[in-house]
C-alpha cells in the first residue's frame, strides 16, 4: 500500500493517477475526500491533526510526503513522519524544492524544507528526496488573464530557471516509491533547458499563434499584493526568498536527474505548453 499525501494537488494527483494506472494499491489523503475520484481508498486527514494522520497509516509500506507552502513550517512533515514511524511504514519519498538550504543575504531558501529533509534522512526509513525546480504549471495561475490578453506577471526578471513539467516530477516520485534503487538519493529535477519568464511567454505565444507579453513585478510589489490578498505573511516571505534567489540568477540550473530516473529526456516547456493550450485560449 502506498500512501499519497497532497493527493488533490498538482503533483500528488498525478502520482495517484500513475500508481493506479500501474495497478499499485494506493490510499489518498485529503482534507476534502469528495474532491478525489470515487472508488479510491481515501482517508480524511489534516497535517495539523496528528490523530487523523495516524488513521491513514495502517498497512502502508511507502509514503509520498507532500506538504503545502501555505504554512511554511516543517511541523507538517514532522507530524506525518511521526505517524509513519509508529506504524511500520518502510519508505518515504519527500517532495522538497530546488535551492533548499541555499542562502540569499541572511535568509535561507526553503528553510522549512531543509528541516524536514533532515528529519526524513534521520527517520530510519528508506528515503528519497525530490528537489524540483519551478513547475511549468505555475503559469496556469494566470491562465484566465493570459487568455484575455493580459501579460504574464514576471517576478524573476530575465533570470532563467530549469522549469520542470510537473508530470515528470510525479513520474520520478512513482519510480522512487516503487524501486529501492532510488533509496538514499536526492534528485534535483529540472526541465531540459533554463528558461526565463519572457522565454516561457514566447514559447506559449508561438504555440497559441498570438503574442503573449510579460510585465515585471518587483519583489516588494509582489509582497504587498500577496499580503493584501490575505496570504500568511510568513508564507509570503518564505516564497519570496526563493523568488529573490532565483531572480539573482542562482537557479539557472539544468540537471540530468529526470532522464537518469525515467530513462528518457525531461519534457520540454514547449510540450507542456502544447498539452495545456486549452487553458490559455
Ligand atoms: N510550484 C513550484 O514551482 C514548486 C517548485 C518546487 C517545489 N514545490 C513544492 O511543491 C509542494 C506543493 O506541491 P503541489 O504544487 O503539488 O501542491 P498543491 O497543488 O498546492 O496542493 C497542495 C496539497 O496539499 C494538501 N494540503 C494542504 N494543506 C493541508 C493540510 N493542512 N492537511 C492535509 N493536506 C493539506 C492539499 O490537499 P487538500 O486541500 O485536498 O486537503 C493539496 O492536495 C510544496 O512543498 C512546494 O514547496 C513547488
Characterize the structure shown.
The protein has helices at 10-21, 50-56, 75-85, 111-121, 143-147, 166-178, 197-208, 219-228, 233-247, 257-262, 269-275, and strands at residues 2-4, 26-30, 41-44, 62-65, 91-95, 103-104, 107-108, 126-132, 152-154, 185-189, 214-216. It is of the alpha/beta class and 281 residues long. It has one domain (2-280): NAD(P)-binding Rossmann-like Domain (Rossmann fold), CATH 3.40.50. The strands form three sheets. A seven-stranded parallel beta sheet has the order 3-2-1-4-5-8-10, sandwiched between helices. Helix 8 runs antiparallel to helix 9 (233-247). It starts with a strand and ends in a 6-residue tail after the last helix. The model has no long low-confidence stretch (mean pLDDT 97). The structure holds NADP nicotinamide-adenine-dinucleotide phosphate. NADP nicotinamide-adenine-dinucleotide phosphate (NAP) binds next to helix 1.
Amino acid at each position: 500500500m502506498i500512501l499519497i499525501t497532497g493527493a488533490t494537488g498538482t503533483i500528488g494527483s498525478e502520482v495517484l493517477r500513475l500508481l493506479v494506472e500501474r495497478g499499485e494499491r494506493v490510499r489518498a489523503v485529503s482534507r476534502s475526500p469528495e474532491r478525489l475520484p470515487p472508488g479510491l481508498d481515501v482517508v480524511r486527514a489534516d497535517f495539523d491533526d496528528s490523530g487523523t494522520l495516524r488513521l491513514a497509516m495502517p498497512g502502508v509500506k511507502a509514503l509520498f510526503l507532500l506538504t503545502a507552502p501555505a504554512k511554511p513550517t516543517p511541523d507538517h512533515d514532522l507530524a506525518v513522519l511521526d505517524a509513519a514511524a509508529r506504524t511500520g511504514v518502510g519508505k518515504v519519498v519527500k517532495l522538497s524544492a530546488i535551492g533548499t538550504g541555499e542562502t540569499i543575504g541572511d535568509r535561507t531558501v526553503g528553510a522549512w524544507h531543509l528541516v524536514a529533509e533532515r528529519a526524513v534522512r534521520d527517520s530510519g526509513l528508506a528515503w528519497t528526496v525530490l528537489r524540483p525546480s519551478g513547475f511549468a504549471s505555475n503559469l496556469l495561475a494566470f491562465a484566465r488573464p493570459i487568455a484575455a490578453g493580459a501579460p504574464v506577471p514576471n517576478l524573476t526578471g530575465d533570470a532563467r530557471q530549469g522549469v520542470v513539467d510537473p508530470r515528470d516530477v510525479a513520474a520520478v516520485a512513482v519510480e522512487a516509491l516503487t524501486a529501492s534503487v532510488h533509496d538514499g538519493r536526492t534528485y534535483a529535477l529540472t526541465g531540459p533547458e533554463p528558461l526565463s519568464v519572457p522565454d516561457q511567454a514566447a514559447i506559449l505565444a508561438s504555440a497559441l499563434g498570438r503574442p503573449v507579453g510579460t510585465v515585471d513585478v518587483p519583489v516588494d510589489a509582489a509582497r504587498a499584493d500577496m499580503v493584501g490578498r490575505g496570504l500568511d505573511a510568513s508564507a509570503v516571505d518564505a516564497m519570496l526568498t526563493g523568488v529573490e534567489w532565483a531572480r539573482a540568477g542562482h537557479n539557472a540550473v539544468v540537471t540530468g536527474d529526470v532522464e537518469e530516473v525515467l530513462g528518457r529526456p525531461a519534457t520540454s516547456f514547449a510540450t507542456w505548453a502544447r498539452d495545456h493550450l486549452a487553458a490559455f485560449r
